[in-house]
Specification:
By secondary structure, the protein is mostly beta strands. Helices cover about 5% and strands about 45% of the residues. The protein is built from one helix and seven strands. The chain has a five-stranded mixed β-barrel. Keywords: DNA damage, DNA recombination, DNA repair, DNA replication, DNA-binding.
Length: about 150
């Protein structure tokens, strides 16, 4: 195979509200963290251990506005996109790096009754992507974080 692949699929919970940044050319960017957790029983101590990984999500334009309107801290969401590392200079002149997930598609997974704004789960593509039919959210999501996959 001669090609490469940069694809990320995450299901996690928002760690904060969507932060919007607007630009002069009418474009905008939304940023928010999501947490994914892995739980297992340690063989040494026989105790349950949970490891949480934080991911910085970036959505653009109309998709960002939709996320800002319907997502709140704690909501469960499916994110699909690609990994991107940005290089930037901080206030002290030091070069810094940030690794982000550039979101191409997302699905709201928090059930309608659990959302503060009582909105239906939706699947949304960025404006540049081909439109796809809406898919409903999975109904068998385990609330306690039982991470046994069904396959």
């Amino acid at each position: 195979m001669s090609g490469t692949l940069n694809k990320v699929m995450l299901i996690g919970n928002l760690g904060d509200e969507v932060k919007m940044h607007y630009f002069d050319d009418k474009n905008c960017v939304g940023r928010f963290p999501i947490a994914t957790s892995e739980t297992y029983v340690s063989k040494q101590t026989n105790e349950r251990v949970t490891n949480t990984e934080w991911h910085n999500i970036v959505v653009r334009n109309k998709a960002a506005e939709i996320c800002e309107k319907y997502l709140t801290k704690g909501d469960k969401v499916y994110i699909e996109g690609r990994i991107k590392t940005r290089k930037w200079t901080d206030d002290k002149g030091m070069e810094r790096y940030s690794t982000e997930i550039q979101c191409d598609e997302f699905t709201f997974l928090t059930p309608k009754g659990d959302q503060q704004q009582s909105q239906q789960p939706k699947k949304t593509n960025t404006p540049n992507a081909n439109p796809q039919p809406q898919q409903s959210a999975p109904t068998n999501v385990e609330p306690d974080g039982d991470d046994d996959l069904p396959f």
